[in-house]
Amino acid sequence: xxxxxxxxxxxxxxxxxxxxxxxxxxxxxxxxxxxxxxxxxxxxxxxxxxxxxxxxxxxxxxxxxxxxxxxxxxxxxxxxxxxxxxxxxxxxxxxxxxxxxxxxxxxxxxxxxxxxxxxxxxxxxxxxxxxxxxxxxxxxxxxxxxxxxxxxxxxxxxxxxxxxxxxxxxxxxxxxxxxxxxxxxxxxxxxxxxxxxxxxxxxxxxxxxxxxxxxxxxxxxxxxxxxxxxxxxxxxxxxxxxxx
Length: 244
Prior knowledge:
By secondary structure, the chain is α/β, with parallel strands linked by helices. 50% of the residues lie in helices and 11% in strands. It has 10 helices and 6 strands; from the N terminus they run αβαβααββααααβαβα. The longest helix is centred in the middle third of the chain and has 32 residues, at 145-176.
């Protein structure tokens, strides 16, 4: 990743997932983010954060936004696309928030006005009238301390359940002696995981067990629960042994 960012032409726009990376489930550590920030600054790149799963990695909103906060502290100008589709359960409403962070300075208010006018033009030409329902739900929760605290607790519950399912799946596969190593299931974080299964193994799971995932072996950890995890683990064990 460092090599790719270093090799990109100066002043490139670099799209980054701050947490719960989709599709890999692999997030940089804060120290690694600092290394990436140094390269992006050196190359005069523009960081563009796609924040789709805040709260779904650690369960802590501030911790999941640590990379964004670090970049801003370092003086970067940046764009943040923040989705409420998953962490508010508003997937069908496409609710979110668009943030443009500019550098501090005496002309900051003028800069903000210019950016705001351009965004208004884009919004009008591309969307015209976005749906209000989801946005009003998010705004109600975010502006009410009691509701906000309840939402944070819900995020901790949800992210904690996903982490538990990761631990349970890895534990079952290791108890079954499934060929290969399975620590990557718990090393990864967030909703998704690359299992390491081949396309042939994925198709075998689909045909024989009606367990569905993308052909590259990416699964949604949120689809696992206490009632199906034994079936999923035993099915994975079978296809790994049968299909090389």
